[in-house]
Design a protein that fits this description.
With about 150 residues, this protein is α+β, with helices and mostly antiparallel strands. It has five helices and four strands, in the order H-H-H-E-H-E-E-H-E. It has a four-stranded antiparallel sheet.
């Protein structure tokens, strides 16, 4: 179970994973050694999975977010594994969710433009048989964060 200090460490690292150990210890009001031990324990427990740099998608010509709704025509293990491999093999797809309801899967992708989405669509349908694919182009990103609510 995470205590208040662990949560302070996690909040600080979510906001800036490049913080030095000294700065992190100061922000969380604990000694450098105690901070180091806690960070090591959080990493060992898998609470901190990795530290990454968040890139500006527009600066990389990846300004279009597409939410892709997929209906599958099969639901067996072999098809599911083929679909999983297809999704994992397409770097434009940033997230994939299996859902309950009318839509079987929702994918979130980043591409340069509509032509970029069309190329992604063609690659996807060439690798796995799908019943229906519906794209929704995001007009405005009102919130896009990776910071988890820590209470």
């Amino acid at each position: 179970m995470l205590d208040t200090t662990d949560k302070r460490i996690l909040r600080a690292l979510q906001a800036d994973a490049t913080l030095s150990l000294e700065a992190l210890a100061e922000l969380t009001h604990i000694s450098r050694n105690a901070c180091w031990r806690r960070v090591q324990a959080l990493e060992a427990a898998g609470t901190i999975r990795r530290r990454v740099a968040l890139l500006d998608p527009k600066a990389l010509n990846l300004g279009l977010v597409v939410l892709i709704h997929i209906r599958a025509n099969q639901h067996n293990a072999a098809w599911t594994e083929q679909f999983r491999k297809a999704v994992l093999g397409l770097p434009e797809i940033l997230a994939a969710y299996r859902t309950a309801g009318d839509i079987d899967y929702i994918l979130r992708a980043r591409v340069p433009d509509v032509a970029g989405y069309d190329a992604l669509y063609k690659k996807l349908i060439a690798t796995v048989e799908l019943s229906d694919v519906s794209a929704h182009f995001v007009m405005e990103e009102m919130k896009d964060t990776w910071e988890l609510p820590l209470g």
